[in-house]
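Risk register update: the risk of archive-format incompatibility is retired. Evidence:
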Amino acid sequence: MSVRIVDSAEVHESATIGEGSTIWHLAQIREDARVGRNCIVGRGAYIGSGVTLGDNCKVQNYALLYEPATLEDGVFIGPAVVLTNDTYPRAVNPDGSIKSASDWDATGVHIATGASIGARAVCVAPVTIGAWALVAAGSVVTKDVPDHALIVGVPARRVGWVGRTGHRLREESPGRFACPDTGTRYIETDGVLAVEGS
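Archived output:
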């Protein structure tokens, strides 16, 4: 399988693009970034220096993934999502001098396997989004998100659980849930969801 990079995309020579991936118009992939196999990076998306995408990720149009963000396999990033990297952002130091790269420590967003971040959501670093979690469009994530959590709002809060298909789980009895698509059953214990019997 070949890599497809359209003419208007800007991909640094030290970036790595996996087989089968497509980089669309006006996307920018910075130095030492790693894009896995079979990924799609949409129009105008920005992948910062050293950012890592696993295999089979989709980064939609105009999403901004600032270093040192890490995406595991199968992550979906909706249009205009922002993954931040500066806990205390300032343009200048207290003496008025312009901040340089050495004046701050980048902190990243980590997104685990299969998670999805809805359009225009903002993930404020440092934060971890758990596997198969779903962040609703427009949410602002300021705290770690557990696996399979459905979170919404500003600031984002958990309002339910989702299965691997992204659909909300049905609560069959207290602490016991089922996926309406696959029939997979889950048990919630102390705010953690696990597949029944695992």
